[in-house]
Amino acid sequence: MKTQLSSIEISYLTKELKILINGRIDKIFQVDKKEFYIQFHIPSIGKKILRITDKLMYLTENKPETENLPEFCVYLRKQLDNSRLREINQKESERIVEFIFESKNGVRKLIAELFGGGNLLILDEDDIILSAAHYEQYKDRAIVAKSKYVYPKMQYNLFNLKLKDLKEMFKKTKIENLVKCLAIDLGLGGTYSEEVCLLAGVNKNEKPVNLKEKEINNLYSTIKKLINKEITAVIIYKEKEAVDALPFILDSYKELETKRFESFNEALDYYFTNEFKIIIKKESPYESQIKELKRIIGEQENTIKSLKEKSEENTKKGEMIYHNYQLIKEILDEINKASKKYSWGEIKDKLKGHKTVKDINLKDKTVVVEV
């Protein structure tokens, strides 16, 4: 099941999104903290809607039905309303896309970070952060208002890779497995790393440090071909269930059923609109028992807390009575004497405005005093 875009997929996607250049922003919608829709009007083409989430981005035919306007969305509208898109760039081989707008406020840059928890930021022409969907403090950088935007950089740029870089990476890597090394150190991701190994005819479980010159050359030429393919977008089906949406068919999937699309954007839109299913894991009997035990423990803890509070309250009351015992005894003695001559209603009337006796309950014949 596809849940995110790899660096190489973002590269092909960005090429298709060039259609938005010179388009004017009509509206910006925000569904929740991590889901945004930007509606463009493109000269001679018409309306196009871009969906951006924490790990995904593509053109869609489905506009959200929402009046939700969080503060950040209002700010985006203020900064980008009626602005024109002039450039779209992927930041090296990172899962980051930069949109450069010409607006009434000057140059504005919208940054979509499609990794981790995702983020959407707006910068000025000097890359100073004006606002962000959420602010973060990382080990080596910070997303903070009025600070310079710095994006994370991998050591090797997949789209500007030299043969010597690949040799160096295999020599220095601490990863013991070729396919994982390509996925992590080069940022290819699991699916495309498997494909590179398959097409290059190299054992994916080989230790990178043990690779022969010919194997490295084959891997290098295969990577170059993979990042320069023609887009022939497909959705992959396994046992009638959609398992992936790709910019082109992979040899790894050649035995599986496919559905062709005119563009990668269309494939993604169809996949996430019609095929994507959230799998809800069914609880095991043990998990149900654990949940029930946690519920019982929670109730018992609340009961203990309540009893403790009552105990503390009663202790305070007892201490108060002890310290004012003589005064309380005198009041009770006087009321008991009076009850032999007067009714409780008459006693209550006589004690109105008393400094210490605040009330008498006629029903159960109790006295409320304040000490």
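Second entry:
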Amino acid sequence: MSRRRITSWTLIAALTVVCLNSVRDASADTDSAIPLPATDKEEIEKLIGTGIVHDAQPAAPLGTPESYMPPVGSSMIYQLVEKSNRTQETQTLEDTTDPTLAPGWHYSVERVGAYYFQTSSDGSLQTVAEQDLGNKVLSKFSPGEPLIIPGLKPGESRKSTLQVSVYDLSDLKKVTHSGSLDVTYTYVGTYRVTVPAGTYNAVLIRWDYAGKVGPADIKDSQYRFLAPGAGMVAMAQIRSISAMLIYNDHTKMGKLLERIQ
């Protein structure tokens, strides 16, 4: 057999391998859609109802934090779903003006408080402080609580331990309580979600918390569906905080985006 014939067959074989790999890669992309685990589906539907979360979609690694944030200066109106009652809540994203927490973003929640976001050196978006108007305190986290971890793949988790310092809003120089929280951050997958504001392909992030801050034992789970350009379009939260006979909070609620203005 001539060298030319050998070269031709070698070329054909190589092209065949490339084509097969392309088909295999395309199939892998299709298979990257991760069905919502049954336990998560049950918890979410208890709090936001059925018919909200639809089929799994092909899920890429998490993008940049900015891609999942609503426009700075916008207000998001949410329907609150709690014990079969529906009310409204306004959340607003603005640049942080507090010099002790800048540069970053101030995310206010009507009648509840605010969160302060900053980007870390690795490009992640973190919550570095939380204002609680009900208890009149400001909690600071070190390191910051993970909000968006760019590059994290669907199905992956990250664990971290946050040191928490709590200040009374009347005196932000004095720590009144301290403690720590263990946080497990999981990128569950991407799902088609229908809320009053519309239908989105949204990534689902689950946070699981456990720890003790001052006299309070804390256990909390949160599910947030984040859509590019819209931010959080749906949320489910299960919270249990007990400080002996002093303070108890056993919250179960859902939030659905109604509109952005």
